[in-house]
Task: structure prediction
Amino acid sequence: MTETGRYLYAIARGLDPQALTDVPALAGGHLEVVEHRGLGAVVSSVDLDEYGEEGLRRNLENLPWLEEVARGHDTVVQATATQAPTAPLRLATICLDDDGVRERLDAWHDALEQVLDRVEGRMEWSVKVYARPRPAPAAEATRPAASGAAYLQRKKAETEARQADESSTAMIADEVHESLAARSVAGRRLPPQDPRLTGRSERMLHNGAYLVEVDEGVAFSALVDELATAHPEVVIEVHGPWPPYSFATLEQT
Amino acid sequence: MTSTAPETRTRTHAESRAERLPEIALVDLLDRLLGTGVVLAGDVVISLAGVDLVQVRLHALITSIRSDMVEPR
Result:
């Protein structure tokens, strides 16, 4: 007989368990809410062969598995976040049974309450800034240099132009972040994503996450549009609203 | 003669609450699910506290991307 564990998706406050009946759980299971001291943990049962420590180490290297679990986890978090203040849990948090879940809720009760207070009525927006591809070198630069000295001089000028360009786009990214952070409840700079992961040729200068009041979402994306118009040298993209993934970390409390 | 049915444009409160939020790109989702989010550390939890998540993530993603590349460098 295979053992099962309880996979935790999110912790919510004031969640009606009936609201999640039509939402699919991972591994064909069904969602339940384990309640304790005013908090509800959204859980479902998973097979420990697949989700135990050994299985996870193996499966996390398997991209299709990782994608399916990440998408499944996100579906549940999103459904929960539209119903109640929600603290999403990190991928693959598994307790052995419901007593284990309640023990976690007990041990982290105050920190979880603080997280829920912080994210209640707020959503996460993502804003990324990319460097625009540099224009092709001017016709003059592609002509053969008249002498070795002229060649070196041109190379030096090109390097200086590129460095100036990089420092000015980095300043724009800082400015964009400051403007957005001033208009949101909280802002974080996540590490810029590797072009191999984004599939885009432009270099990512800024990968920001912002916690924004639900009612302020429209104004926030309008501000991003304004910043994009003011800085045509960079590409600025906004995505959201998402559940407050980046602002539900207990370490910050 | 066709007529538009206005009631099809009207959503109930419950329906609009259950509406899906915009889908998150996988790379953004993994940034968040592996890098942020609540970690309930403790011995009852199996969890991934001991695993270097960033390494796992990049290894998985880059391995897959490389295998798709026509000319790996």
